[in-house]
Amino acid sequence: MLPHADDAITRDGKALILAYDHGLEHGPVDFEPNPDTADPEAVWDLATHDAVSAFAVQKGIAEAYYPSYSDDVSLLAKLNGTSNMWMGEPDSAVNWSAEYAADLGADAIGFTLYGGSNYEVEMAEEFREAQETAREHDMGVVMWSYPRGQGMKNDTAADTIAYAARQGLELGADIAKVKYPGSGEAMAQACEMAAPTKVVMSGGSKTDDAAFLSTVESAISNGAAGLAVGRNVFQRENPIEILDALEAVIYDGKTAKEAIELTGDAALADD
Amino acid sequence: MLPHADDAITRDGKALILAYDHGLEHGPVDFEPNPDTADPEAVWDLATHDAVSAFAVQKGIAEAYYPSYSDDVSLLAKLNGTSNMWMGEPDSAVNWSAEYAADLGADAIGFTLYGGSNYEVEMAEEFREAQETAREHDMGVVMWSYPRGQGMKNDTAADTIAYAARQGLELGADIAKVKYPGSGEAMAQACEMAAPTKVVMSGGSKTDDAAFLSTVESAISNGAAGLAVGRNVFQRENPIEILDALEAVIYDGKTAKEAIELTGDAALADD
Amino acid sequence: MLPHADDAITRDGKALILAYDHGLEHGPVDFEPNPDTADPEAVWDLATHDAVSAFAVQKGIAEAYYPSYSDDVSLLAKLNGTSNMWMGEPDSAVNWSAEYAADLGADAIGFTLYGGSNYEVEMAEEFREAQETAREHDMGVVMWSYPRGQGMKNDTAADTIAYAARQGLELGADIAKVKYPGSGEAMAQACEMAAPTKVVMSGGSKTDDAAFLSTVESAISNGAAGLAVGRNVFQRENPIEILDALEAVIYDGKTAKEAIELTGDAALADD
Amino acid sequence: MLPHADDAITRDGKALILAYDHGLEHGPVDFEPNPDTADPEAVWDLATHDAVSAFAVQKGIAEAYYPSYSDDVSLLAKLNGTSNMWMGEPDSAVNWSAEYAADLGADAIGFTLYGGSNYEVEMAEEFREAQETAREHDMGVVMWSYPRGQGMKNDTAADTIAYAARQGLELGADIAKVKYPGSGEAMAQACEMAAPTKVVMSGGSKTDDAAFLSTVESAISNGAAGLAVGRNVFQRENPIEILDALEAVIYDGKTAKEAIELTGDAALADD
Amino acid sequence: MLPHADDAITRDGKALILAYDHGLEHGPVDFEPNPDTADPEAVWDLATHDAVSAFAVQKGIAEAYYPSYSDDVSLLAKLNGTSNMWMGEPDSAVNWSAEYAADLGADAIGFTLYGGSNYEVEMAEEFREAQETAREHDMGVVMWSYPRGQGMKNDTAADTIAYAARQGLELGADIAKVKYPGSGEAMAQACEMAAPTKVVMSGGSKTDDAAFLSTVESAISNGAAGLAVGRNVFQRENPIEILDALEAVIYDGKTAKEAIELTGDAALADD
């Protein structure tokens, strides 16, 4: 964790990371609710929204589009990832070297660690190499810290998420992305364990607007620096409005209710 | 996926990749229908046909013949491959480094990924290294994206092929070679998922002319950029004519029927 | 083992290593007795105590705080470590390269070896690389020499600890950190086996003051160069006082009883 | 396969490779028929025979003797090999780097590939590295192409040998060494599959002179470029005479019978 | 095997290697017969005896003491080794890089190969790298050639030891250290198989003086170049006298009986 290393992917110390690696991790099924989003251009356009402090994609999608969006989007190079056809213990291929990400102009790298998996040690060592290379190139480091596999019974238990956040700090992440541990109190514990490492909550599968914004509000008010979100934005019919609302909650300290009112979108309120 | 990286192995954005690595992948049995094709020279000669935008071979066959054909053939260096004596989970040895392919003058690299295999993670990481080296040397990147192994029940299901095409995009291929998913609609879905990455249909085992051309027509009219073909050309008695016909379908937008008529070959029509 | 290589992390040839990698190795549970210690800053402040000859932390915690403490704290870069979510044979990921530790200004590296684990050979080879890199950068080398795993029945048996200490010497550690083998005689044996390699006793889980100091006294009087301690300092309500007392025992040759009297802390005596 | 890369180890395009790595592969037992041959010098002397176009040895035997024979012997550095104490799936340790072979002055490298073994993929990748390094140093490349292991039922079946020969071509060998597939016709098929890659027949265990020469004649007349032989030369009492006879068959196109007559050795005829 | 590469660790072509890596390989138990020998200094002093042509130690013991003994002792850097807590198939961690050994001023490297172990291939490849690096730095190469593991029924059978000695030659060792195969005849066979590679007999566990010297005499008179010995020297009460006697047997061609008489040590004769 290096102070200010994440400046290029945060805004006033807060973060809204738009993630779009679902085509690799989950496959085409994630584009079904909103078929246009299979086209990366549609989501790159969303990423230009002021609320988005960084856009997380795999290498191929960065190669193809980032040169056209480099003035408007901060690139978070998601270095590892694996299809869900993979049937072994949780693991993630390193699909992108940190050097090449730097060459492409990435502002930060993203890396998944499956704590508790039978590949935890190997993934931690791959993270080491990526993290240290990121430092050479002044890129920030975001860890997707997701305990999973083998004997992991409850991967969103408060203790597990707190441990995951702490792994982010100890191993050298500037930002740790963790699942929402079910309560504001548990999120506060995770943030406390991460200490100077910022914690962002993972958006998860799509929920209704009010519930989603309310969870984000809870996370923010309990110390989270923001949100990393994919489906809860691009699977909606109103992605711009939800980004407006998230901007209000994350950067302006509004409540979910205020944000819905401010964005003046009946659809959001009634969804 | 890098725009224009595949220019040297496409023609007006379309591709007909002649593949000739069957001696390694399947063994001598593939030359039995047309014994002369065991001699690489015979197939290199076919590769000079105007319809062929790239010729995919393993290292040894490139070393021996490419210097004599470099003016007339675009070389697609198929970097990995394994004999069918291999009895483990689907895997493919990296037989050729991307650096050496560049030294030999290759225009692009080809690489197989078996999504869903117990070797998927390892192969994806080998692909990473090859892909990034290809970028250093301005070579295009073609992925043979073939889900296979373990629990993969149907490797030509529409969802599987769409996922395979998307893997090509996400991991950084300029062209994804996938099996024909059984219908034009399914091929359209795959092309949509690949977005800017071009999709070429794999020729597969030999079928009759009309059926084969009709499948190619279906693929092209549903968004495929072309075809990667081996046995359906070199196992025929009339390889030149089928290349003529494929040229008409792929580059000139002719129907299968028109192509057969245009090439004026009774043999093709009646095969 | 290189004479004087540990000068920067010892004081008159004695050592009190304050270790603070529990957030990775054990998780948040270790901060529960004293919740403020989840904040690394609180423990970095403890590390400025004169008694502390080196502070052992993982990479992320060094990156974030060491620049502010480099005048007052000697940095012992704990290179490997793993969460206790890991369920395989004892192993430890190399989370930090020795080069990067040197770049950050570390005075020494720390490395765990699980002798007897199914990963012993692999860990020893990782240690080799770290140790030799440490030599290039004039950093000292501390081995956490912890036989563990498979058929290891008693990991604090006198013979086991003596063997562990010897491994430290043979493989090139300047200091070997071992568990207390249950008696002063056994500790003497371990020190004899380590010969010029210094032996420090591992603090272990928290015990009461008198018992703890008495064990330290026994270790010191039987040849140990000092102590590596975490929980027995930072989980206490009186960490400063226990550091004062440890200073008396380790550097001044006081008995546990004298140390308690000297530090004039009733709480210590009565704990 | 690179035209002319094997010039230094062939004579008029033909090859007689004397192999002497039996001390590693089979152990001392292979020297029992002719105990003097345990002394490498005795076999180096045989290698100076005009019939021998290359001498294949492991590193230690090259280091010790090649400097004294470099004017008279072409060195074929057999890079991998394993003792028969090894009880795992067929595998072969890389005992010699291609760089070091080049430093010693080797004219070519030799490398075993066990197609079908559970180590096929790993061995093919080790071959890649050796082959490409050989190209950097203008050394020829000979593959000992030996399908073996797991489900391989008949490792001298015609189809298997033809496949083995083809692997040599596809992977970049200039010469493929294969077992005799039992008939001239089958050997012709293997040579056809290897196309420009030369095929040499493996000598195998010792047989009587007439039978041995007759098999060699059959191989040569069916397209083989020559022979790689060890025991059938050095286990004989008359190694010079058999080399004379082999020279007649391989380079001068004599029949086995003519060769026996030409060499005028009653022992050969009556053996 | 490179002629003269072992000059620095032999004397007139003969060798008495004093080995002292027992603290790693066997643990403290080996020092019990003579507790002072746990202190490396005591054994370094023995290594200055004129009879000792090389002293074999692990890295840590070389780092700590060699600078003080470099004028009087030839350093044989034992690169690999493992504790006997290891319970897997025989394997040995590479604890010391050959480069670092060269930097420390080593005259030669020592390396264990467990032929027949499930790690044989891996160890042979590690040996390759060490051996070739030794050549770059003009260091000699000694192989501890110890068939062991899996199906190895008798690791001192004559055939096994002969094979082990041959492995030393083939793989590039200047000296092969093997166990005594039970008879002078068997030792002669091993020496014949090693050809120019020198064979030294391994001292093994401590036996009485006359028996021990008699075995050494048998080895020497059957072609061995000498002895590698540890416990049979340092576990004795009279290590100087036994070294005197060994000097007579190894370098001066005395019989065991003559040596005992020459050294004039009643203790030796009556032991």
Automatic annotation (TrEMBL), chains A, B, C, D, E:
Molecular-function annotations in GO: fructose-bisphosphate aldolase activity
Top-level division of the source organism's lineage: Archaea
Active-site residues annotated for this sequence: 146 (proton donor), 177 (schiff-base intermediate with dihydroxyacetone-p)
SUPFAM superfamilies tied to this protein: Aldolase (SSF51569)
InterPro entries according to UniProt: Aldolase_TIM, DeoC/FbaB/LacD_aldolase, DeoC/FbaB_aldolase, FbaB-like
EC number assigned by the record: 4.1.2.13
The protein's enzyme class: lyase
Family note: Belongs to the DeoC/FbaB aldolase family.
Name assigned to this protein: fructose-bisphosphate aldolase
